[in-house]
Amino acid sequence: MGSRLNSRGLIIRPRKNVRHNLHIKTMTISRRVFLLAVAILHLGSTDGFSLSMVASGAPRGGFKRNFGPLPSIKPSSGVTSGLISQLAVVALKLRLKDQCGVKCDVSASSSDLLLRGRVGPVTVRGRGWQSQLGLSCRAIEATVDSCELDVGKIISIRKLKLTVPAKGQAMVALNGIDFASFITHPLMKPPGLSNGAEGIKFLKDEVTINARTGTVQFYGSYLGEKWELTLQRGSESERALVTVSPVNQSTDLAEVADQLTESVSNFFNAMVFELDGTFLTFKDMMVTSKGAEPTLMLALHITVRKFPSPGLEF
User: What's the pLDDT score for residue 158?
Assistant: First the structure.
């Protein structure tokens, strides 16, 4: 359309370019709003890493399985908690050597997430987990009440950094093989004696969980002798009770057996199992016959001071 004259004889030029420029500005503003929404959602997506067995990177040597790309981020409301859950599940699966199931339930309010970097509670459930170094369990359920992160770190470098330690509880189900792997794990320091001397060394073979007696029987080596250890639930003040006796009953080792009994009982009650900034401590135990085989249930306290470093094997 060309120029035309108005009633006063002035030339009126078409406004096509003005509309075009306005359209471009509108698109630019809309794009910025869209990118801001994506950034906010991405901030929420990483807050879900709050747990002792979550890591932010791959183990050395690469992954044995490919679980596909991370979930896509969509700028729509009401998906933040679901997105956090998806990203946490993907990270856990990549971190584990094997698993039969991983689920993560996240609760978060928009105000807590955006203003404080806080999510919680966060509950992780899994079955058939096994780590790169053989740490395994039949089932696990762990809950962290609250997780607060450095929002600036998340936005700027996409790194998860706790501003305060995250604390919670866990219940872990172990069969005989799982328990044997736990007590002989490379990160598990063997119990020492009260005088500071080296104590008994746990053996990986011959672990028996007896649901009828509520005990776990296993073995150790000390002073060239083989020892039988029996773990059972103790009193409120001594939650785990372990009795130690020599397999060779003809040997006069009663005094040594008493020392080892005290040492191993204290070991389980005061146990602190660290996974690069995540601390697990013993709370309680029970033996159950439910399921396909007798199972030891361990109740644990969890304290996460920082997330495991990339490449750490546990």
Answer: 57
